[in-house]
Amino acid sequence: MNDLTPSPPSAGCRNTPILKERGQHEVFCGLTGIIWLHRKMQDAFFLVVGSRTCAHLLQSAAGVMIFAEPRFGTAILEETDLAGLADAQAELEREVDRLLERRSDIRQLFLVGSCPSEVIKLDLARAAERLTLKHAPRVRVLNYSGSGIETTFTEGEDACLASMVPVLPETDKRQLLLVGALPDVVEDQALDLLGKMGIEDISVLPARNVDQDVRVGPNTVFALTQPFLGGTLAALERRGARHLPAPFPFGEEGTTAWLLAVAREFGVDKARFDAVTGAPRARARRAVAQAATALKDKSVFFFPDSQLEIPLARFLTRECGMQAVEVGAPFIHKAVVGPDLELLEHGPTIAEGQNVELQLDRCRAAQPDLTVCGLGLANPLEAEGLATKWAIELVFTPVHFYEQAGDLAGLFSRPMHRRRALRLMEAAE
Length: 429
What we know:
Blueprint: E1 18-22, H1 34-40, E2 44-50, H2 52-61, E3 72-76, H3 79-82, H4 88-102, E4 108-113, H5 115-119, H6 124-135, E5 140-145, H7 155-164, E6 175-179, H8 184-196, E7 202-205, E8 220-224, H9 230-238, E9 242-243, H10 251-265, H11 270-291, E10 299-302, H12 309-319, E11 323-329, H13 334-343, E12 349-354, H14 356-366, E13 370-373, H15 375-383, E14 388-390, H16 393-396, H17 405-428
Parallel strand pairs: 1-12, 2-3, 2-4, 4-5, 6-7, 6-8, 8-9, 10-11, 10-13, 11-12, 13-14
Helix pairs in contact: 7-9, 10-11, 10-12, 11-17, 12-13
């Protein structure tokens, strides 16, 4: 199947010197990940141990979910807790007991640390152990940190999945593990493609409910579906599982390369691979070509935000004809994004970390046709006449695999169309 391998550029970015930025950063914290994780894990509850600010963040981010009782909440740390005048540990355990008594549907409970809980050194790991002993086997209690101190918002999912790995049952069975929270419809598409190739033993982390039998062991091969799961990768390798490096499944090229890496690992022949992927590949190419007409030969600048930046830059430059000026990412884990860096044509600045003022200066000097950034930067840049794309939307929206390839290109072309329409309106006035 060598003829299906994406042709690398004459010089990729794998060994490009990385500009290390350390300074003021503008990103959401890891608590934000709860908004999509609680939808994915249908029997899980996420209890944030934090301040009223943490509660307001979650309520604002999930404000659209008003028709059902959400599966997340906040155990508020009061001033007495922060000052050490109350036993926050005991209070937390009492709150958990009351929650589990009221909500019999909870099978997994995540205690999620925040900036305030970390500042006062609240031991959530010990609380999770005590509560697990108390409520097992009905409820499994785990903990992870969603603090925004030196982290970005997608690391919340990484920390959550990494916390699940040590308690997964052991298996010696040869199997494929897909890692990363995807919308159910996208996950089903991926499983359908792999199943048609004859790959049968497949599990998904996170599973939709705790009763789905997810195991890991030395014969487990895992493929990441999200480029921000470096901690989960390390946790799985500690359990003996083996990572399958591949470009991420964004666009036709990325999806084909990702599927091809899995197919080779499990001995799928070229004829069967072509038969399974041929039609959806063709649909994806047509959809991307149609949506990308507004993107060809346009420049794009990525601020570090979601950690999707490098795979998306590969998609935009190779499949949509854009030119990358700068590709910034909060963290660059080459074991994770190395295959995408190899396919990204040498030329753009590759930056890790954030110093907002310096990056704003470079962005304003470059005057890119499109800027991908966080919500806090988008409105000011729009006011300056730059077209922007909210980075967080690319995490919430179904964008993986063939059937979403055109939608992914459309997410970037719409700001271009909007900017053009505004200019026409201004000219008419």
